[in-house]
Amino acid sequence: MINKLTEVYNNWCNENNLPNISADEHNRDQLTYEQKTFLNDFIEMWEYQQDIDYFIDKNLKTKKDG
Q: For the segment 28-65, what is each residue's pLDDT rounded down to a tens digit?
């Protein structure tokens, strides 16, 4: 899923003529309300997906070790 999120983000940066930098590194003072909203939502989804990936990895590792 992280790969899909990365693809969405890269496309969004290109469509908005923004540098392809980490989402939290954009200068929000130079962004529109819609762009800020997208970035906030994107960062939230990214963190959520990382939590899911961590949970899955941790539990798969526990099963292998057990």
A: 999 999 999 999 999 999 999 999 999 998 998 766 66
Cα–Cα dist 52/45, whole Å: 10
CA distances from 32 to 15, 36, 41, 64 (A): 14, 6, 14, 48
DSSP state for residue 21 in the 8-state scheme = -
The angle at the Cα of 47, spanning 28 to 25, to the nearest 5 degrees, equals: 25
Q: What is the DSSP letter of 24?
A: G
**What is the dihedral angle through the alpha carbons of 26, 38, 55, 20, rounded to the nearest 10 degrees?**
-40
Chain position carrying tokens 């003529």: 17
